[in-house]
Specification:
This protein has about 120 residues and is mainly alpha-helical. Helix content is about 45%, strand content about 5%.
């Protein structure tokens, strides 16, 4: 089950090394060049998530996909990639949503990867 954040929860800037990183009202980084692993850790902590090696693998995949294709990876692309990498159970839609319980890998994953909101998100 996907968790939801309280309204306006992510409007405050994320503080990284004493610097305020501006995010939009849904927690997406406004300047993609501000992303760092420290940003991801700080935002994850604020969302109640401790990043594991699996989280970092998804975050790296999302960032690499963005840099290669100029768009966010669709969930089906993530499932195909991680099923090949981890096997059917761990690469499944269900497992990816367990990793990223607040909006799944496409919303929470992209937020933590410092990417923009996907088209069609409200």
């Amino acid at each position: 089950m996907t968790k939801k954040l309280p309204p306006n929860f992510l409007q405050d800037p994320v503080i990284v090394d004493g610097r305020a990183m501006r995010t939009d009202r849904e927690g997406y980084l406004q300047n993609l060049d501000d992303w760092s692993p420290e940003f991801a850790r700080a935002l994850a902590a604020r969302e109640g998530l401790t990043l594991t090696d699996d989280h970092w693998a998804v975050i790296r995949f999302l960032r690499d996909f963005w840099h290669e294709h100029g768009v966010q990876a669709q969930v089906r692309v993530m499932i195909r990639h991680f099923t090949e990498l981890w096997g059917a159970e761990r690469g499944s839609n269900h497992h990816l949503h367990l990793l990223f319980p607040i909006g799944g890998p496409q919303k929470q994953g992209n937020r933590l990867a410092g990417l923009l909101r996907t088209k069609g998100e409200h």
